# Entry
Amino acid sequence: MDFNDLAQMVISGDNKGAESWTQEALDSGVEPAAIIDSGLIPGMEEVGRRFKSAEYHMPEVLISARAMKASLALVRPLVTDSGIEPKGRVAIGTVRGDLHDIGKNLVGMMLEGAGYEVNDLGANVAPEAFVDAVENGGADLICLSALLTTTMPMMNSTIEALTQAEVRGRVGVMIGGAPVNQAYADQVGADGYAPDSATAVEVADALMKKRAAG
Ligand code: B1M
# Structure
């Protein structure tokens, strides 16, 4: 089976096609990890590239993410069973007091499509829940989203909670959301900032690389 076909189905947002291609591939013995590495990731990378160059806008990205998810739903349990390690473990959420979750969901989907295990903590997430995701969930990266100027300071509070709990040193922190920028990331002591979901994957990869290098 041609992995390019699956990548194209993701790019064009053909979720039924992606689902049946994946089922057929699994039935004929294709390795689940190969479906992710050679079909879904290249497909979502192209979607990310098109989004960054303004060729794609939010609706196309969401439709592609839905196709990626339809395939991933069939593959994920098999990958988990086979013990293949994800690229990294991410806990993502919108900070406390903030209910906006569309951008956060998109970032989570892109990270998942890029090979990360994503623990989506939802919206309006208390700092303690992020601490718990590191202490008990084994998160390598904490991803904080905020859409309101009034909830931006909660990013600082969350990072402080990680420091208080003495887990800040073992986790990377990335922040994002419309009112946030690199200067704010520097101000609150985050390790990374991404303006959009495609860049979020690049920043996550860079942070994981940095962590691996010690
Ligand atoms: Co609200 N809202 N909203 N809202 N809302 C905004 C954000 C606002 C800019 C509208 C405006 O006034 N022009 C304004 C904020 C002003 C400010 O603080 N500067 C605002 C306000 C004021 C409010 C309320 C206070 C309104 C009220 O009740 N008076 C209220 C607050 C509720 C709360 O959170 N406590 C409120 C409520 C809502 C709804 C519930 C109705 C709804 C949210 C539904 C939902 O999310 N489930 C809503 C919506 C939809 C919006 C707008 C229209 C759209 C936001 C969105 O989803 N954008 C927004 C105006 C606007 O942005 N045009 C607005 C699409 C999304 C894909 O983009 O979230 O930016 P975005 O995510 C991007 C990047 O930012 C980045 O990647 C994503 C994809 O590229 N990104 C990350 C996001 N998180 C990231 C994390 C990362 C990395 C990148 O790493 C961790």
User: Anything to note?
Assistant: Strands lie at 89-95, 117-125, 141-145, 172-176, 192-193. The chain has two domains: 3-82, 89-212. Residues 89-212 form a domain with the Rossmann fold fold (CATH 3.40.50.280).
